[in-house]
């Protein structure tokens, strides 16, 4: 990639710069998308903005954009698609934090949406971000080819629904009542967290119009990364610093849920996480330096402190 | 339309038969779509089935199918799209009934989802039906043309989001705290109820690949029908029979909300509703007997007792 392109491409930038760049771009997109109207819906938009703007690692848009960069996709386009995927992620955080679900007071270092705006506005803010994500993906301004738009919607709706994120969250709620084995916990986490991470990479692949045979390696990368990410999350829950992570920790053990940690122990869980990251990186062997950002993201996942 | 087609077409069947036919077809679709898996998500699927199967007037799929029938669209296709729109409607009912929202115990003559399955499952069942709707619309098995699929997603996501149904529900919650005038109540109801009714008709128009100039009359029909439907709903809330309607009534007055009824009074509200139905029917003047079902739906809306 030419040096002249450096300021608008994450491909060769160090990871911290890439994260900061994407975070700023996603924030600006949400700022436009969620402009507060001068009518009785103002609090609804404030609630969406509270959750969507100025927080989070933006891992999913980063994955979409870094993957799309491999295939020379316009960054304006991959940013819009990444923002839509982040909207799905943010909606799920709002609903998961509700008193009837995980009952969390803090998220990304701020009070959760229902704590500030009430439960009704939180439910509706989540619902609205969910619908907005599909509106962005289906909008001709996001991508000129309807085939690509329809494929993106299919990718994301499957990852968000009962066979993906929301189904995984249901299994997670059941985990407090049942005793899951490692296979079931793995499936649960692949649905709850892995599906959307995979969809974020797949979105980059769809935008890049990659032929089916070329998709396998990036799917393998996304699959292993998603699982590694969740194990790292479990480790953070057990060993992390609440001030850094920005939410309440040590909740898994208190709820008596089986997790990777309870089933494997800290040492084996960390080893498993490292192994999955190595595997994820190995899937990228056919790519050169242009995939360094995806490699760096995988390494970051296991070493992060938030 | 040829007599030979009568058993599979609603176009010339009396309204009650058409409603029963569509209701049975939508139920069968949901039964397939929501087959209960043998894993910890079983209750999530039971919750979705409880809300989606065996109840409701199925007005929205009926509108999609009756509109699509005007243009010779395959009924298998319009049924799938109608079912997706009904999934959006059902998800909104589940969330609106939650304790933090309208706090309703009964819906369609049955206990509400959160009463039977708990609040967490109710929130997730709504979220899943929301995602499933877009999955159905974006699926190549629903329609072979990606342009049509993307247009359907755009139509529905706009109708469901902050400028449509969910935005209207937020305004409705604010209505308990503010004193809305007739213009604001009209806008609220056009968003909360009208947007999805319009989207259901528009979906039939999209499936029929109707040129822009041909869409105006059906849009006018949908717009007036949506408003008439909501005024009729307000009248039912004030005068209806709870056993027939299948949910708690007289809630608007108790909450001190301004509605069409509180602002217009019963007589002028009923007159306004009749006028809107006449206007809706008038929009169909260019169509012959093939639009009789759409006319019958409009007449039914003002005279219904549930």
Automatic annotation (TrEMBL), chains A, B:
Pfam families: polyprenyl_synt
Keywords attached to this entry: Isoprene biosynthesis, Magnesium, Metal-binding, Transferase
InterPro entries hit by this protein: Isoprenoid_synthase_dom_sf (IPR008949), Polyprenyl_synt (IPR000092), Polyprenyl_synt_CS (IPR033749), Prenyl_diphosphate_synthase (IPR053378)
Keyword Transferase annotated: yes
Cofactors (names): Mg(2+)
Keyword presence, Metal-binding: yes
Similarity comment: Belongs to the FPP/GGPP synthase family.
Protein name from the UniProt record: Polyprenyl synthetase family protein
Organism whose genome encodes this protein: Sphingomonas longa
Biological classification of the source: Bacteria, Pseudomonadati, Pseudomonadota, Alphaproteobacteria, Sphingomonadales
